[in-house]
Amino acid sequence: MLLIDVARASSEVATTSARLAKIARIADLLRLADGGDDVRVVVSWLSGELTQRQIGVGWASLRSVPDAAAHPSLTVADVDARFGEIGNTAGKGSQARRTELLAALFAAATGVEQTFLRRLLTGELRQGALIGVMVDAVAKAAELPAVAVRRAAMLGGDLPAVAAAALAGGQSALGRFTLQAGKPVGPMLAQTATGVADALERLGGTAMFEAKLDGARVQIHRRDDMVSIFTRSLDDVTERLPELVEASLALPVTELIADAEAIALKADGRPHRFQITASRFGRRGGKAAEQHQKLSVFFFDLLHVDGIDLLDLPAADRIAKLDAIVPATQRVDRLVTSDPERAKAFLDATLAAGHEGVMAKSPTAPYEAGRRGAGWLKVKPVHTLDLVVLAVEWGSGRRTGKLSNIHLGARDPETGGFVMLGKTFKGMTDEMLAWQTKRFLELADGPTAGYTVKVRPEQVVEIAFDGLQTSTRYPGGMALRFARVVRYRDDKTCADADTIDTVRALYQQAD
What we know:
By secondary structure, this protein is an alpha+beta fold. Helices cover about 35% and strands about 20% of the residues.
């Protein structure tokens, strides 16, 4: 299969708003594939992932690339192999060698292919080919029921592999994607509720409320004395978390698959900042890493135990089995209630303990692996700040030609300037994108043809965010977590924006 076919399909999908049209276009592309390997790679790419996950290439590596080739010649297999070679290049002179390999790849690519590759490598391939669209496209290409493909994908935790099997072997080939200890499963995800009362109403009047810890979600697999630990994105981090392995081996079972949260706690039981927990996931070295900052583990769901699958059981039954094997000190705090006041008190107590909020779960809901099920709702307080736009970046995909990713700054009363706290492109409607493109071109303070357009610091924007984290990237030493636009504040001037002192106070409250 030629890369040009994938690049053109990606471009067409990005400019198509209709879901069915996206599905049909991707299905047509998959039918052109030369074999299972091509299918696996294409599904991965159109989902915005390299098969290698990371190869050490970002925007800085792509600032200058060779002129585009006149005619397409690259194949999917060739490009995937080149990505692998770039990612595996290490040691002395590796940076120069990666630059050389990347230049050779882009020199062989046409203009359309270069655009696709650039967006793929920088994580900017926002074309609307989300997991649900991809599952339906695979099903359509293979002429199989979407429910069968979706089930295989959630149990196998690997849609590209499921796609390759479906197109090569039909429905019978999907039978090998079963729940197995040691093989990660796509985690169930949650929708959002506006508060505990909203959650109770949406869940039928009664809910299991659980503390939503500000840690890292993990999936723990055990078979006899073999333990595997996977992240939410299904990366294997077993060797980095020996204390979680030890805790899993202490449970009175021989086989299990469980959902849990790993978190770094202070001596008083309050959580460290999220980066402390996250740093353990980037460290290697077993006991040496553990001694740096020990993690605690809290289990909150059970998918399989001693040969019995629990996915389709009601949540209340799964939790009962979990409680029977996991000590109370290693389970998340939980409250089952239909009383909004008790639920609110539980939320307040959880927040006071330094955690993110609560999860509200239907006692009757099954475990919908790999899906954002209606049976799980997250309730978190929303923080907002009025910040000033300092610069803005040109968008890609559906946002090509629009100024999209905005740079956010807080006012510094001492210097009269602004301190950058992060960027965001989230929360923007099509109407907002059109407005801000016009507005920021009017405020441009320099060239507008480059990737980033500096603007005069005049436009105030209300930003919602989930918290603040330590950052070495920005001069204030802090960065917003999960920032998104609420609205532009034309009723405020930059003199009315929140100050860096206000932001520091919020940051210090989390300590």
